[in-house]
Design goal:
- It is built from six helices and ten strands, in the order βββαββαβαααβαβββ.
- The strands form two sheets. A six-stranded mixed sheet has the order 6-7-8-3-9-10, sandwiched between helices.
- The chain is an alpha/beta fold and 222 residues long.
- The protein has helices spanning 45-52, 75-85, 101-106, 116-129, 145-157, 175-190; strands at residues 2-12, 18-29, 34-38, 60-65, 68-69, 86-89, 163-167, 194-199, 212-217, 220-221.
- Helix 4 packs across helix 5 (145-157).
- The structure holds adenosine-5'-triphosphate and magnesium ion.
Length: 222
């Protein structure tokens, strides 16, 4: 369902200098799979997630999701694609610290102008699922790191996306919280979500429910 075909990503720093972040990458991920992208800092993991989320376009090559060439979408269609298909858990969670838990989780629904009852139902569902309902009215900046991460995961799931992308999800967590994140991934897989995790955390490299660990070195899959 997710396919990168000979994708190259070059960042032009100025007229002379450029960085080849991804060099002719081909990768195929089936529906319901959990794939771990493993690689050193700067190897290209986040660049791959950005391509799948249509947050950036490959310099050459194609990205195809459910048969659709998302690397060709205009910005407007790319944001519709993201809204309907992608839940993104950012490394630094990208929450709004001054807002409550409920308002942060509801944010992706705002552009949809949702029916209030429907929004409340979706909110209740994800807050229960990720064990954050007891903090619904707390202001996010007062939460612990693990709680903030559960808010970020709840927000990524409020639209019930088929694809979850997580960038270094355990970078700011201790081992116990990292293990509970892994349990969350397992439960999302049981719901047949397709999950791509960029990480260098060894906890992810030997999990029985992970379908493949893809190693990236200097923008090349090895
Ligand atoms: N917007 C950008 N402009 C210029 N260079 C960039 C940009 N984004 C990434 N790069 C460069 O592309 C390469 C790959 O970066 P990427 O963020 O994909 O790596 P990563 O594997 O996610 O690293 P980390 O583990 O540190 O998050 C790096 O050399 C990085 O400096
Ligand atoms: Mg990264």
């Amino acid at each position: 369902m997710i396919e990168l075909k000979n994708s190259t990503k070059i960042y032009e720093l100025n007229r002379v200098d450029k960085v080849v972040a991804l060099n002719d990458i081909s990768l195929s991920i089936k529906e319901g799979e959990v794939v771990v992208l493993k690689g050193a800092s700067g190897s290209g993991k986040s660049s791959i997630l950005s391509l799948i989320a249509a947050l950036s376009k490959p310099t050459s090559g194609e990205v195809i999701v459910d048969g659709k060439k998302i690397s060709k979408l205009s910005d407007n269609f790319a944001s519709v694609y993201r809204r309907d298909n992608i839940g993104f858990v950012f490394q630094k969670y990208n929450l709004i610290p001054s807002l409550s838990v409920r308002d942060n989780i509801l944010l992706p629904l705002v552009p949809l102008n949702p029916d209030a009852k429907d929004a409340e139902e979706k909110l209740a569902l994800v807050m229960d699922m990720f064990h954050i309902a007891h903090k619904a009215d707390a202001i996010v900046k007062n939460l612990s790191g693990g709680e903030q991460q559960r808010v970020a995961i709840a927000r990524a799931n409020i639209n019930n996306p088929k694809i979850i992308l997580a960038d270094e999800p355990t970078a700011n967590l201790d081992e116990k919280l990292s293990l509970s994140f892994i349990e969350i991934v397992k439960s999302l897989k049981a719901l047949n979500k397709t999950i791509v995790i960029a990480t260098h955390d060894p906890l992810f490299f030997n999990l029985d429910f992970v379908d493949s660990v893809v190693e990236i070195h200097n923008g090349i899959i090895s």
